Predict the structure.
Amino acid sequence: MTQIKICCIASIDEARLAIRCGASALGFVSAMPSGPGVISEEQIAEIIPLIPEGIATFLLTSKTDVAGIVKQYEKCRPSVFQLCDRVTPEDHRELKAKLPDVKLVQVIHVLGEASIDEALEQSKTIDALLLDSGNPNLATKSLGGTGRSHNWNISSEIVRQSSVPVYLAGGLTPENVADAVKTVQPYGVDVCSGVRTAGKLAWEKLERFVEQVSN
């Protein structure tokens, strides 16, 4: 079954709702240059210990330096780091040496066919890829949470060639996620704004999203 990651979790109540509806992973957004869902590291550190065993806890970070990421881990203790900006393969290796029990998921912002080569190169030193619709090349970086989809045909090619699991993000909703899964065939899907109303996790949207993925 396609894994479901619910992102931008803002409270333990949202976490519990997501888990009840079928989420296998939760995303917690630390400081970003732009985009929704940011909460403090103090809040993240309070919520993560309350998450049941077996549910992956993704800490979304905009940091690209090993020391800064390790410091975040020591404070928040996630099971997975979602690296939203570009991190070098050398730093991937150093992070894996320093944090051997933590999975690394590198975000690839799908901007065109060049993203295929970028994804395959990055896949050599991480545990999974996550394909999103931001743009780290902007003056104010966009590292996710855009609510926009990207070219799923490119994402599908990355999935076909990747040696590691691939999550699909970017503009997913209950209305389009079934088509996204059929087209891309990802290991997992990642959603934030598509299951929210006025910024709050909406039970009805979340239930429909999970139903569409499951079917």
